[in-house]
Amino acid sequence: MGLEAVELVLKIEDALEIKIPDAEASSVVTVGDLVQVVILNQLRSSTPPIIEGEALQRLVFERLRDIIADEFSLDPYRIQLDSELRRDLKTD
């Protein structure tokens, strides 16, 4: 993971009050992968989310989309679940 990706993970951890293990963070390729990693870590936390399924996935995606857009000065609507962080969003 490059420096920009590490900074993004730290920002996500702070914003969502979770810890993402390095091994999981380094396996992320797409925004969808990142959504799944965040959901898994939220479910492991001491205060799991009160919603589930597609509603949880949509909520996490929208939150991550806003964080990514802010961090990299991107149009949030350019960010999709299948967007690759390195290739499409130029995070590294």
Task: Note the main sheet.
Answer: none
Any idea what the shape is? globular
Helical content (DSSP H or I, runs of 4+): 55-70%
Regions with pLDDT < 50 over 5+ consecutive residues? none
Structural domain tally: 1
Mean pLDDT metric: 90
Helical run tally: 4
Strand fraction equals under 5%
What's the order of the H and E elements?
Answer: HHHH
How far apart are the termini? 8 Å
Quantity of strands, as a count: 0
Structural class: mainly alpha
Please provide a written account of the structure.
There is one protein chain. This protein is 58% helix and 0% strand. The protein is built from four helices and no strands. It has helices spanning 3-16, 22-26, 31-44, 53-72.
Task: Kindly list the characteristics that best describe this protein.
92 residues; mainly alpha
Give a brief description.
The protein contains four helices and no strands.
Describe how the helices and strands are arranged.
Layout: H1 3-16, H2 22-26, H3 31-44, H4 53-72
Helix pairs in contact: 1-4, 3-4
